[in-house]
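Example 9 (inverse folding). The structure is encoded as follows.
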């Protein structure tokens, strides 16, 4: 379900920068972003909350929590090339951490490929690609030239049987079928891959059998790591997801999301999600490959205790209350 978006340009200052938060997540030491608003329009996205004070929104006359628009900087590859040369302590950089370098607007300027090329042209860098757009396949020829230095990941938020509901929540992203096909093609070509199952929404991708299917898919694609995350309950995301699903007739999925808008139910959902994911990875893969990303601030104290009883490969983030 594609939605026309308003397109804005805004000049950014950085190309490649350290990202302590993503280093804690074991995703990357550095981050690279091509803008401040992704045109995929995922209703659960929390980037608006992270960047809400960024001056680009005021300059473009947009609400950071709004949808139907994108903000990119077409000159980003120039700064990325500069930083790729100048930074001495090189390592793993994620493209991108807050937006998507292959969303329709960014793809008009070939920002994903140009940034990727600029980074890889300098020795010592490796790149973690993360996107919801199968357009990244057009750049697999470039990745093949540096196959040992690039990790390919397409965000998979459910398997294809839930594609119609997800098209409501991720209106401008590639379909799940297209993303699955892109991951399979990356593996067929011998590219390095990792799995990104974030977020796994209740009623859509949190049941044991659904998680099993996702984990088996990751194994079949040769994923080196399996990242999983619950949906972020802060901000308007859950309400927007619920309302959009109801409007399109997905009442069961909407009810499941409505339930976790209450803290106690969100907390229980997280506990069960962790247990289901751990069990599935232990059955079908290697638990050492799991990276379950968890901000515990919304959890009830008793649920923190339950998670601590078996927190294998849970990456505790944010508050130290755990």
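The amino acid assigned to each position is listed next.
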């Amino acid at each position: 379900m594609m939605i026309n978006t308003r397109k804005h340009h805004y000049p950014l200052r950085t190309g490649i920068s350290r990202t302590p938060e993503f280093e804690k997540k074991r995703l990357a030491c550095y981050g690279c972003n091509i803008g401040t608003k992704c045109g995929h329009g995922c209703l659960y996205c929390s980037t608006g909350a992270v960047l809400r004070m960024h001056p680009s929104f005021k300059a473009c006359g947009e609400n950071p929590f709004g949808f139907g628009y994108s903000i990119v900087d077409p000159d980003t590859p120039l700064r990325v090339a500069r930083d790729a040369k100048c930074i001495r302590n090189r390592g793993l950089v994620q493209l991108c951490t807050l937006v998507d370098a292959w969303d329709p607007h960014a793809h008009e300027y070939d920002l994903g490929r140009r940034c990727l090329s600029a980074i890889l042209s300098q020795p010592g860098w490796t790149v973690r690609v993360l996107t919801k757009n199968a357009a990244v396949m057009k750049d697999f020829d470039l990745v093949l030239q540096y196959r040992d230095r690039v990790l390919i990941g397409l965000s998979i938020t459910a398997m294809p049987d839930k594609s119609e509901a997800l098209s409501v929540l991720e209106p401008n992203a590639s379909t799940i079928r297209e993303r699955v096909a892109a991951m399979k093609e990356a593996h067929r070509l011998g590219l390095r891959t990792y799995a990104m199952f974030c977020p796994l929404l209740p009623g859509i991708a949190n049941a044991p059998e659904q998680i099993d299917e996702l984990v088996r898919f990751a194994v079949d694609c040769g994923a080196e790591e399996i990242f999983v995350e619950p949906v972020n309950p802060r901000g308007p995301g859950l309400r927007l997801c619920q309302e959009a699903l109801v409007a399109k007739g997905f009442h069961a999925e909407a009810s499941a999301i409505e339930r976790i808008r209450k803290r106690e139910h969100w907390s229980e959902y997280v506990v069960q999600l962790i247990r289901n994911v751990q069990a599935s990875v232990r059955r079908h893969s290697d638990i050492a490959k799991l990276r379950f990303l968890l901000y515990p601030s919304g959890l009830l104290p008793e649920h923190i205790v339950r998670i601590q009883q078996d927190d294998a490969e849970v990456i505790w983030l944010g508050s130290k209350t755990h």
